[in-house]
Amino acid sequence: MRRILAIARKEFLHIIRDKRLLGVILVMPLIQLFLYAYALSFDVKQLPTATLDLDRTTASRQYIDALQQSNYFLVDGVLTSYAQVDKRFESGADKVVVVVGAGFGNDIAAGRAGNVQILVDGSDANAAQLGSSYAGALSRVYGAKVVISQIEQKGLNISGAGGLTSSMRTWYNPEGISAAYFVPGLIVVLVTMITVLQTANTLVKEKEQGTYEQLIVSPISRIELMVGKIAPWALIGALDIIIIAVVGILAFGIPFRGSVGLFALSSLLYVICTLGLGLIVSARATSVDSANQLGSLIAFLPTFMLSGFVFPISSMPPVLQWLSYLFPARYFMVICRTVFLKGGSAAVLFPQIAALVVFAVVIVVLAASLYRERA
Amino acid sequence: MSWRRIRTLIWKEFVQISRDRAMLPILFVMPILQLVLFGYVVGSDVRNLNLAVLDQDNTVQSVRIVDGFTSSGYFTVSARPSSDAQLKDALDGGQAVVAITIPKGLGDAVRSKRAAQIGVIIDGSDSRTSGVAAGYAAGIIANLSNQFYGTGGAAMTAGGVNAQVRVLYNPTMRAVNTMVPALLAFILLMSTSNVMSQAIVKEREKGTLEQLFVTPIGRADYLLGKLLPYTLIAVAQLTLTFLVGVLWFQVPFRGSLLVTGGGLMLFMLAALGIGMIVSLMSRTRQQAQQTSMFLQMPQMMLSGFMFPIDALPKWLYLLTFLIPLRYILVIVRANFLKGSSFMELWPQFAMMAAFSIAIFLFGLSRFSKRLAD
To answer: Which residues of A touch B74 (CB under 8 A)?
Structure first.
């Protein structure tokens, strides 16, 4: 134990004296937190829109106003002929063109459906998807309003007409605050990046600097060395989790609805996994360079891409879905989201926690055996 | 400046690259890996969302509703809870991201043409799905309503506005078609700036820079000898990415190679400049890598590469104008899918040229100053 503490203390001194490293560990997570919290959103608002009003009546102007007031469309161009439409799209000036057909006002006044055409630039798939569904829905709502007011003017009662409707509710984050989506997931991403990348370096670095022989001739056993080396990083990992969680809760108003104990336990399990992964990389890598390459590959790609952080796993090709089961990030991602936003109990999260336990055991055993054999 | 010396330096660089085991993966494995992952993960359309169904009605109509959801391809039933508590657990544990509840008596209401309502609950903790899923669900329910009641039955859909929505250039709204053109620019930026900075820092780390300068090689020779090989490599990477995108991912190319290629070449100046700036800020290769990663993050987030920039807060939106990647993305996407020509894209070209040349010259001047010291 005394020897482990000595190694841990030495490692700590290394970290504290490296100003740049300290910046990477403590400042970078915060900058990323703010950047992600503001920028990471697929939401589309104020889509640049041009209008081509072939009708020029009060009714057509009211319809265009209704679209603009929704805040989803920003009318920044008024066209006078169809020939201009292509140019607006090709220069990227507009993503949506709303064409109100001639006779729109007359049709509506006569109780028929007025014709409009909504052209959407598909070259931005996400904007096109949201833009086309917003435009369609807004037109339906506007049309329904017109019909209801017409029927009411005639003094008829419309409550008898049937139809299938839905009451749509969004749970956990009803206001759609993008920080609430991403802060819990960001904990997973940042902690993985820091712990895997830094522990991946530890062993190779000592070897490259030639200090490794000195350690080996001392009475420290391999396992003591391993524990001593990762202990400071476990603490730093925990510190990062706490910083992000606290800033997320205080600065962005993210709720924390679950149990702190459950979160702490699963964080611990997850950090053991990532530290173990880092050690495995460190034991296999031949140089600091390749340790960095391999480490960033393991730290970044699976956690960012295959954990469900931003991109839903269920929409991926099956091969990538299977691959995602092989990285512990996927399970910790569910746990983080749940404890922050949903507040689920241990029973609900049992499969994820069990998976983390299995991963932690397998990774630690593997890392220890590799360490003993290689070191 | 002597062409013979530059040629020797280029040769030296290529020999060095081919013998460096850490460099080869960055050059050839990373671009392919990025292309495949971004193409399949980021470029995947939101489909097969996990759906929990709480059917308290169990009639022909309720089964048709569930069919309506699953046959669209957007939803797959992943849980069939039998109570509200179980439904909550399914959403809490992430087994489902959308839940529908069909109340008892819905079938009767539909048969007697009375109004009926089903509940839709969306997991708001998942950004990508919650927006899109709500849209899908609304469309499916409107469709079912027409089937159950006939178009005339619901007064709402009869008169009013008949909106015909048409999506141009990418009618199926395939996300890969948006992602692959952008990846050309993104991979160019990542790889060129990364490799460039690593190569310079490595030379400094190993102390071979001094050795070079006691030879008759001038600063200009050295710079050209460094820049040219990485330009060639970048062109090779671009060709590879382009071919994989068009042939494997089947992205239509409707533009001209001149516009896309010319734009990317101009953008490469920015990438090389960033590489030089990173190399000035770092003493070791590890630091260079960390600095590159640090600089890549905001470029990825604030350029419109993955996330739309229109909805950003004002101060962040203003920041996006400073990122050259923003302009090249508009150029490659528009040229690829819409066939936009230089005539339509000149504002983007002008902005990008200004930034790229400024970054490149800044990097170059600081770099030659550093060499002169």
So the answer is: none
B305: nearest CA in chain A? A124
Residue A263: HSE in the Cβ half-sphere, 13 Å Cα cutoff? 21
For the stretch A83-108, pLDDT in tens is: 888 888 888 888 899 999 888 888 88
CB contact under 8 A, B119 and A166: yes
B55 Cα to chain A: minimum distance (Å): 14
Q: Does B220 touch chain A (CB under 8 A)?
A: no
Separation between Cα atoms, residue A325 and residue A212, nearest integer Å: 36
Tell me the three state secondary structure of residue A229.
helix
* B307 close to B293: Cβ distance less than 8 angstroms: no
- Cβ neighbours of B285 in A, within 8 Å: 288-289, 292
B94 Cβ contact list (under 8 Å, min separation 6) = A334, A337, A338, B123
Subunit contact B91:A171, Cβ cutoff 8 A: yes
- The complex's ipTM works out to 0.73
Q: Order of strands, edge to edge, in the sheet holding B75-79? A: A164-171, B116-123, B98-102, B49-55, B75-79
Q: Which of A125, A168, A245 minimizes the C-alpha distance to B130?
A: A168
A129 contacts B170 by C-beta, under 8 angstroms: no
Identify which has the larger pLDDT, A353 or A43.
Answer: A353
d(CA A159, CA B114): 10
Give the Cα-Cα-Cα angle A350, A352, A357 (nearest 5 degrees). Answer: 90
- Looking at the complex, does the CB of residue B252 fall below 8 Å from at least one CB of chain A? no
Residue of A137, A293, A348 lying closest to B138 (CB–CB): A137
Q: CB-based contacts of A20: which residues, under 8 Å, 6+ apart?
A: B287, B290
Name which residue leads in pLDDT, A156 or A311. A311
- What residue has token string 């079912």? B144
The alpha carbon of A118 is separated from its chain's Cα centroid by a whole number of angstroms, namely 31
> Which residue is associated with the tokens 């600097």?
A209
* Crossing angle of helices A222-252 and A28-39, rounded to 10°: 40
- Contact of A247 with A327, CB cutoff 8 Å: no
The confidence band for B89, taking pLDDT boundaries of 50, 70 and 90, is confident
Contact (Cβ atoms closer than 8 angstroms) between residue B117 and residue B157: no
- Residue intervals of chain A classified under CATH 3.40.1710.10 are 47-153
Query: What are the tens digits of pLDDT across the range B218-262?
Result: 777 887 888 888 888 888 888 888 998 899 888 889 888 999 999
Q: A166 pairs with which residues across the strands?
A: B118
pLDDT tens-place string over residues A109-129: 887 888 889 998 888 887 888
For domain B49-158, the CATH architecture is 3-Layer(aba) Sandwich (3.40)
Q: What are the C-alpha distances in Å from B170 to residues A57, A120, A153, B284, B333? A: 33, 9, 43, 46, 11
Which of B125, B174, B316, B326 best probes binding to A when mutated, by most A CB atoms within 10 angstroms? B125
CB atoms within 10 A of CB B368: 15
**Sheet with A47-53, edge to edge strand ranges:** A73-79, A47-53, A96-100, A114-121, B161-168
Delimit the domains of chain B by residue range.
3-42+174-372, 49-158
Distance from CA of B256 to the nearest CA of A (A): 14
Pairing of strands A164-171, A96-100: unpaired
| Fold designation for A47-153 | abc type-2 transporter like fold (3.40.1710)
* Cross-chain residue pair B164–A118, CB shorter than 8 Å: yes
